[in-house]
Amino acid sequence: MKSISFIFQYLLNPRKIGAVLPSSNYLAAKMVESIDFRNAKYIVELGPGTGVFTDKIMKSRIQNTVVMLIESNNEFCTFLKEKYKNEKNLIIINGYAEEIDKYTKDFNIPYLDYVVSGLPFASLPKSVSNAILLKTKKLLRKNGIFITFQYTLVKKGFINHFFKHINITREYRNMPPAYVFCCSN
Q1: What is d(CA 123, CA 16) in angstroms, rounded to the nearest whole number?
Q2: What separation in angstroms does the CA of 4 have from each of 22, 34, 75, 80?
Q3: pLDDT by residue, tens only, the chain of 185 residues
Q4: In whole angstroms, what is the distance from residue 19 CA to residue 77 CA?
Q5: Distance between CA atoms of 113 and 35, rounded to whole angstroms?
Q6: What's the CA gap between 61 and 162, in Å, rounded?
Q7: Residue 9 and residue 72: Cα distance in Å, rounded?
Q8: CB under 8 A, 24+ apart: contacts of 159-162
Q9: Taking the domains of the chain in order of start, what are their residue ranges?
Q10: CB count, 10 Å around CB of 71?
Q11: Claim: this prediction has a pTM higher than 0.70
């Protein structure tokens, strides 16, 4: 999907898209570097957009790892379904991240090893962010990891209410530079 189309989607839904341009490959690499792909059975990506993080996940996962993408934007969802139409063990849902528990139940996913999020928590309503983080925390297995990025540290304290441990790194080669939060309990 071209950057013009991404920009158009941002202009239509700035609170949901959260960025004018897709994330860089540098940020994508940093987002997945803490995933143990050899042992991951279930990975969910929230707000995959055009699939920059998804590409890294799909290239690194082992064949039987189940990956679920939850994307609320119809255009992005259609794009992802076409882009990954030949992938096995990939579930693409045109829905809302706050219903992560419903989708995992619908597809008999008992727990999650990793949740990777491209959601703009700084611009989402607090009630939506609460629901997403609470349900994500409950679905993660022991030692499971929630990975997200933000452009500021303003939501660190909020996310810390759900996850005791947050390791933060910075990716300067993204536009704009981003913080990666690697969260666990």
Answers
A1: 7
A2: 10, 31, 13, 17
A3: 544 444 444 444 544 444 446 789 999 999 999 999 999 999 999 999 999 999 999 999 999 999 999 999 999 999 999 999 999 999 999 999 999 999 999 999 999 999 999 999 989 999 999 999 999 999 999 999 999 999 999 999 999 999 999 999 999 999 899 999 999 99
A4: 17
A5: 9
A6: 27
A7: 12
A8: 159/121, 159/133, 159/183, 161/133, 162/133, 162/134, 162/136, 162/137
A9: 24-184
A10: 27
A11: yes
∠17-72-110 over CA atoms, to 5°? 120
Angle (nearest 5°) at CA 28 between 168 and 178: 45
Q: In whole angstroms, what is the distance from residue 71 CA to residue 94 CA?
A: 5
Amino acid symbol at 142: K
* Alpha-carbon span 97 to 72, nearest angstrom: 8
Q: Take residue 73 and report the two structure tokens written for it.
A: 């934007």
Q: Which CATH superfamily is domain 24-184 in?
A: Vaccinia Virus protein VP39 (3.40.50.150)
Length of the chain equals 185
Tokens coding 108: 């008999």
CA neighbor of 101 nearest in space, from 40, 142, 44: 44
